[in-house]
Amino acid sequence: MALPRITSPHTTGSNRTQRVMLQVLAATLPGVAALTWIYGAGTLINLIWASAVALACEAGVLKLRQRPVGFFLRDGSALVTAVLLALALPPYSPWWLTLIATAFAILLGKQLYGGLGQNPFNPAMIGYVVVLVSFPVEMTTWPIPHAVGLGAGLQHILGVTSLPDGWAQATALDVLKVNNSLTIDELWANPAFGHFGGIGSEVVNLAFLAGGLFLLHKRLFSWHAPVGMLAALALMSLVFWNGSGSDSHGSPLFHLLSGATMLGAFFIVTDPVSGATSTRGRLIFGAGVGVLVYVIRAWGGYPDGVAFAVLLMNLCAPTIDYYTRPRTYGHRKAERGFKLGE
C-alpha cells in the first residue's frame, strides 16, 4: 500500500512566521524613530547594512544546505535578528563592526544549530556579545544627541575619520559604573544624564515600551517574561539602592529607563525559541534575566548586562522547563484510580 507523502506544515501554504515577524518589525518603529530623532541617520544606516549582511549570510548558508532560499528568506526571521542587533549597536558604528556582529548572529547563533526554531541562544545577543567582548571601546562610545551630522557619521562608519571628542560620549551606565567620588546629584550635571535614565536613553526606552505593549495587545507573547524581568530589575535596584551617594548604583527608575532594558524586556526575552515555554517558566526566566542584568550592571565588568543575562538564562531554559512542566490533564485522577485498583 502506498502511503501519502505529507510535507511539513511550514513548507506549504501561508507563512504565519512571516506575519509574526512583520508585526515584530512594526513594533520596533517607535524605537527606530526615537533613535533616529536623537542620533540622526546613524541608526538607519546600521539597520540597512545589518539587514543586507543578514540576508546575504542567510542565503549563502541555505544554498550550502540545499534549502529553499526564497522561502526561508521571506519568513523574516533573519531580518528581525538584524534589526534587533542594529538597534542595540551604537549609531554610526564602523561598517566592519556591524558586519562581524551580524555575521556571527546569523552563522553562529542561528544556522549552526539548524536554522529557525533550533537555536538554543538568542542570535542577536550572540552577535552583540561577540563584538562587545572583542571591541569594547567602539561598543561603549555613543554620539552626543543631535551633534553628529550625516557627513561626519559616514566618514566614521567607513573608517576615514573618528568622531571628534566633542561629538562622542560614554553612556549614563558607563559613567555610573566608573564613578567613585561624585554623588548622584553631581553626576546628573554630566551631559550623559537626562531626567531619569540618561539623555536619549529614557526616550528610546519609552518608545520600545510602546512597541512592546503593541505586541502584547496583539498577543504575540504573554506578559510573564517581560513583567518578570522588569519587576526583578526594579526590585533588585530598590533593595540595593543606597540613595545619592558616590557608591550608589542608581534608582529603580534609572535602571528601567537606561541601556537596553525595554528592548530586552519586550523583544529579546520574549523569544519563543531560546526562552522557557510554560507560563510559570517564562516568569522565572524573565526574573532571572532581570536579576542578572542588575548584578552585571552593579558589580560586573560591563555597564549594561542585558545580552549576557539573556544568554546565561538561555542556558537555564531547559532546566526551567523541566521543573515547570504543566500537569497533564487527568494525570492525578488516573494515578489515584490505578492505586485503588491495586
Quick structural gist:
Helix content is 61%, strand content 1%.
Give your account of this protein's structure.
This protein has 342 residues and is an all-alpha fold. The protein folds into two domains: 16-169, no CATH class; 170-325, no CATH class. The protein contains 18 helices and two strands. The chain has helices spanning 16-27, 29-39, 42-64, 69-74, 77-88, 95-107, 123-134, 136-139, 150-158, 172-178, 184-187, 201-217, 224-239, 252-256, 261-268, 279-299, 306-323, 331-341, and strands at residues 142-143, 168-169. A two-stranded antiparallel sheet has the order 1-2. Helix 5 packs across helix 6 (95-107).
Keywords:
2 domains; 342 residues; two-stranded antiparallel ribbon
Helix fraction by DSSP (H/I, runs of at least 4): 55-70%
What's the number of extended β-strand segments? 2
SSE series:
HHHHHHHHEHEHHHHHHHHH
Strand percent estimate: under 5%
| Most strands sheet | 2 strands, antiparallel
* Overall mean pLDDT: 83
* pLDDT < 50 runs, ≥5 residues: 1-14
Shape: globular
The total of helices stands at 18
- Across the major sheet, the strand order is 1-2
Distance between the termini: 44 Å
For the record, the count of structural domains works out to 2
SS-based structural class? mainly alpha
Please give the radius of gyration in angstroms: 22 Å
Main location: membrane
Function: Part of a membrane-bound complex that couples electron transfer with translocation of ions across the membrane.
Modified residues (FMN phosphoryl threonine): 171
Subunit structure: The complex is composed of six subunits: RnfA, RnfB, RnfC, RnfD, RnfE and RnfG.
